[in-house]
TrEMBL record:
Record Pfam families: p450 (PF00067)
Major localization listed first in the record, in broad terms: endoplasmic reticulum
The family this protein is said to belong to: Belongs to the cytochrome P450 family.
UniProt keyword list: Endoplasmic reticulum, Heme, Iron, Membrane, Metal-binding, Microsome, Monooxygenase, Oxidoreductase
UniProt-recorded name of the protein: unspecific monooxygenase
Gene Ontology MF terms in the entry: heme binding; iron ion binding; oxidoreductase activity, acting on paired donors, with incorporation or reduction of molecular oxygen, reduced flavin or flavoprotein as one donor, and incorporation of one atom of oxygen
UniProt entry tagged with the keyword Metal-binding: yes
Gene (UniProt): LOC112053657
Length: 493
């Protein structure tokens, strides 16, 4: 880690000199407002990258876009929703790349849906998308619901967990994904006890390590590959574990309704093929293990943060909390705590609360796209050159008073049935938008909703009026492990 920090410091210094000497007029020459500060400085600071971009977003209210730099690379921060629509949907062929570099010898990272190889990404995306249809979610729901009820029982039996629920939320989502998506540990007495897989970012050190390696891989990919660094560390045991799960399922005649069953069906079909392009891929255990790994990487920490921030806001808003618990109690009482998929769908106010929480604390706080061929943005009429990065500042948009009056106020009424239809298109996109929208968004939402329902059925909250001054350094996700509230059993109140 120390070597990586020293290396990165040297790299940043060199890049700063290069940028000062060669790139400082890049955006000015194109008639675009230019900010000369380098966005990479967040790595050495105490905030997240999306906060750096939000500050730029807020400081230039009259601009459709603002140019800046990431190292020596020009970056355009988009503000016009018309241009954002073009990048994410209308002109997707020019912006399909995320621009993230991976080590070809890194089995997991190089096969994730983050990949920039368009033909490979398109085919894998086609095969993964049907795995989270409404019918499949309904089939998975009994296990999702059991995980949530086991979680509140786990808290009851281990009362010290109330002191730092944030860490326990990682355990909950790891166990829930393991059981409901992969069928791992689903027959244990309590799914929360010793879950087999826990791949959440549970420590600041692991998050910092990821940030440093991610920066190095994008600034100097050749050096990153030469050092044979792995974006997520050495996770070879994940591939071994996944193969073991596949082999165990092959020996069982009963048909499942989870991701493992879908993987077996893909392999039984033979070569995966894109009918339009003719591109083919073999559904190897390694390729499918990478997709399985992505559910943990994308779903554990983001979902834990979502519940954590929701509880923080509810603890500061007792009127909202009381109304929400009344709705939850009514539905739980009517079904005698035998919660079904349809019961969860009936919790409309809980839905509003979650949407407002995701507005204030979007799971994906920014999106990056790389221009893959020269094009022109339709709104600002700006020519974008190949290999230029564009940024969609989701956190900035979600906190823009132009779209959400009093944006720092927690107000679930913004998302009541009458108001939600009035939202400006693309002003709210907590899981991203367009062709590369988060593939597991509906699954994550169902997990969050079910977990909150069971938690608030058994517990209530008292707040410290905690407000984050800044979030933890991160590229994309929004995180504050110091956020606190009192979690109290309702029987104790």
């Amino acid at each position: 880690m120390l070597l990586l920090f020293l290396l990165l410091s040297i790299v940043l210094s060199i890049l700063l000199l290069i940028t000062i000497n060669t790139k400082r007029n890049y955006w000015k020459k194109r008639g675009i407002k230019q900010i000369d500060s380098d966005a990479w400085h967040f790595l050495l600071g105490k905030c997240a990258l999306f906060e750096v971009y939000k500050k730029i977003y807020d400081n230039h209210p009259d601009e459709d876009c603002v140019g800046t730099f990431v190292g020596y690379k020009p970056v355009l921060i988009l503000k016009s929703l018309e241009d954002i629509q073009a990048v994410l949907q209308g002109d997707f062929q020019s912006f399909y790349g995320r621009g993230y570099k991976t080590n070809p010898r890194d089995t997991l990272a190089d096969n994730l849906l983050l990949m920039d190889d368009y033909a490979r990404w398109r085919l894998v995306r086609q095969k993964m998308t049907p795995m989270f249809t409404a019918s499949k979610l309904k089939n998975m729901f009994p296990m999702i619901e059991r995980c949530a009820s086991d979680f509140v029982q786990y808290i009851k039996m281990n009362q010290q967990t109330r002191d730092n629920l944030f860490e326990e939320l990682h355990t909950y989502f790891s166990a829930s994904i393991s059981a409901s998506v992969f069928g791992i540990n689903c027959n244990s007495e309590n799914i929360m006890i010793n879950p087999i897989i826990d791949m959440g970012w549970n420590s600041a050190q692991s998050l910092l390590s990821f940030n440093v390696k991610f920066a190095l891989s994008n600034l100097f990919p050749d050096l990153f590959n030469y050092l044979n660094l792995k974006t997520f560390g050495d996770k070879r045991f994940i591939v071994k574990l996944f193969k073991k799960v596949l082999n165990n399922r092959r020996s069982v005649k009963a048909r499942g309704h989870d991701f493992i069953q879908a993987c077996l069906e893909l392999q039984n079909e033979g070569m995966m093929k894109d009918t339009l392009s003719g591109f083919e891929i073999t559904a190897t255990d390694e390729l499918l293990a990478a997709q399985a790994f992505s559910f943990f990487i994308a779903g554990v920490d983001t979902s834990a943060n979502m519940i954590n921030f929701t509880l923080v806001e509810l603890s500061k808003n007792p009127v909202i909390l009381k109304r929400l618990q009344y709705e939850i109690d009514m539905i739980f009482d009517n079904c005698k705590e035998q919660i079904t998929y349809e019961d969860i769908l009936k919790m409309e106010y809980l839905e509003m609360v979650i949407h407002e929480s995701m507005r204030m604390y979007p799971p994906i706080a920014l999106m990056q796209r790389m221009c893959t061929k020269d094009t022109v943005l339709p709104g600002a009429k700006i020519k974008i050159e190949k290999n230029t990065f564009v940024i969609v500042p989701i956190y900035g948009i979600h906190r823009d008073e132009k779209y959400f009056p009093d944006p720092d106020v927690f107000d679930p009424e913004r998302f009541n049935p009458d108001n939600i239809s009035k939202l400006v298109k693309l002003s709210y996109m907590p899981f991203g938008e367009g062709n590369r929208m988060c593939i597991g968004a509906r699954f994550a939402h169902l997990q969050i909703k079910t977990g909150l329902a069971w938690l608030l059925r058994r517990y209530t909250l008292k707040g410290y009026n905690y407000t984050s001054e800044c979030f933890e350094p991160n590229f994309f996700g929004i995180r504050d492990s110091k956020a606190r509230y009192d979690l109290m059993a309702r029987s104790e109140v």
